Amino acid sequence: MKKHYSPAGVGSPSVAVRRSLLGGAVLLVLTALAGLLAFHTRDGAPPAGEGKPEASAQPEPPAPSASEAPPEDPDPGADAPGSGGRSRSGDPVEFAKAAAVALWSYDTRSASHKEHLAGLKEWMTGESRYADWASVNKQLPDGALWERMAENKQRASAEAAQGRFPQAFLDAMASEPGAITEAYVYVVTVHGKQTLAWTGSGAGAEARSVTLAVQCRPDQACALAGVLPQVLP
Known about the structure:
This protein is α+β, with helices and mostly antiparallel strands. The protein has a domain at 72-165 and 184-227: Nuclear Transport Factor 2, Chain: A. The protein contains nine helices and five strands. The protein has helices spanning 13-23, 28-31, 34-41, 92-104, 113-121, 133-137, 143-151, 167-175, 180-183, and strands spanning 106-107, 155-164, 185-197, 203-215, 223-227. The protein has a five-stranded antiparallel β-sheet. The radius of gyration is 17 Å and the shape is elongated.
């Protein structure tokens, strides 16, 4: 029996994305981006989790390109970023990479489920209109699962190898360049690795990918707005 936690996959990508677009406050801004909405709902959209990091250069984003940050410590015994330490970056890609590491990291030995959630909530935008905590919470273990994980002293750390704006977002920005200026919510896909360890069963690692909505208003540090139900290439 596996003793590590992995988020369950979503159902129909088109239905899940459409539900998020229509019901999630954070994605109100995305509904104004006609190109992105068309990509989400068209037939043949790639299912969640598909798409590996490509070796090709990242397209120029609608924000200053970020410099490479040092990799996160993959040691499962290290302090989990999910317990706090929100990034103060003003660059959406670098912030998204740090937020993904926080989402994929935890340590049941040193934090309760309540404390873990509280630490992640510190990453959220304070603008309630664009904060979709429910979409973030879906990525996390619930209280009952956390207790079972704690019995095995399970912990995980992560590293973000790549972050980039999905092509659908870049296309939408090109077609509606002014749409971003109301909410300043950017869409970023992050690829990385989660390293896990637990008592009596050694350790393991797995590739992880997530697409995040991050709010980066000019001259302010970025904040997490939500998690898209589908990983966008």
